[in-house]
Design brief:
With 259 residues, the protein is α/β, with parallel strands linked by helices. Helix content is 43%, strand content 14%.
């Protein structure tokens, strides 16, 4: 029997520079690591955990990539503006932008305050929009710029609790389609919609045996997702193999909508 060949090393993003917001942990960190392995230089956006962001920068540099950490509160437009100004001083262009920075609040309807609505929308929806808008001058210097937003299975398939989060993610998906139409043909804009992914953000869920079993049982693949499941989908949407794809929301949810 012939010995299978090892998988070919992916260098599809060699020479490209990508900004990943929310890059210090969870899905964002997995995306940044994957992009580095594919040859990309990475600007790592973070909010509070500079230590985690700097450790990721060191990891990317060990791969031979150029990398730098940039701190900003995405809920504050002036900070988003500063973030892109600093990124622009570090690199001459952006070939890719991934808006994975976000927060989750799971309050029921009666417990959802106006401040919670505002907080979630400002970070998850408005923060993503401001990052893309501020990033356009750098993106337009690239020959093949691509934006990937991060939604959620809950952006199109509702569940009880977390109405602000789910509404924000639904907004991210429609924003993605609008921007894909408006910015074409110069800039492509797509989204990924992860399912239930094991991260620090939802540790209370996946570490609860009952809820863990509930989610696994309701997912055709029979398990919670991992951040590393999402990263290759983002890499594909940023790379040359997706040049004909625009305005798509790519589900990475284990088939949850199939019921």
């Amino acid at each position: 029997m012939p010995v299978p060949k090892p998988p070919r090393e992916d260098r599809s993003l060699r020479g490209r520079t990508v900004l990943v917001t929310g890059g210090s942990r969870g899905i964002g960190r997995a995306i940044a690591e994957d992009l580095g392995r594919a040859g990309a230089d990475v600007a790592v956006g973070y909010v509070k955990d500079r230590t985690a962001a700097e450790s990721l920068v060191l990891e990317l540099e060990r791969m031979g990539r150029a990398a730098r950490a940039f701190g900003a509160d995405l809920s504050r437009p002036p900070e988003v503006h500063r973030l892109l100004q600093e990124v622009g001083a570090w690199t001459t262009r952006l070939d890719g932008l991934v808006t994975s920075g976000g927060i989750y609040r799971g309050s029921p309807v009666e417990g959802t305050s106006a401040s919670e609505w505002e907080e979630v929308l400002r970070v998850d929806l408005i923060g993503s929009f401001e990052t893309i808008r501020e990033g356009l001058p750098l993106l337009r210097t690239s020959k093949d710029p691509s934006v990937v937003t991060v939604s959620s299975v809950l952006g199109s398939h509702p569940a009880a609790g977390g109405v602000a989060y789910q509404s924000a993610k639904a907004g991210v998906e429609q924003m993605t389609r609008v921007l894909a139409r408006e910015l074409a043909p110069r800039v492509r804009v797509n989204a990924v919609a992860p399912g239930f992914i094991r991260t620090d953000l939802n540790r209370g869920g996946h570490e609860d045996p009952g809820y863990h079993a509930f989610v696994s049982g309701g997912t055709p693949l029979g398990r919670w997702g991992e951040p590393e499941d999402v990263a290759p989908a983002v890499r594909f949407l940023l790379g040359p193999g997706s040049r004909g794809i625009n305005g798509v929301v790519l589900a990475v949810d284990g088939g949850i909508p199939l019921g």
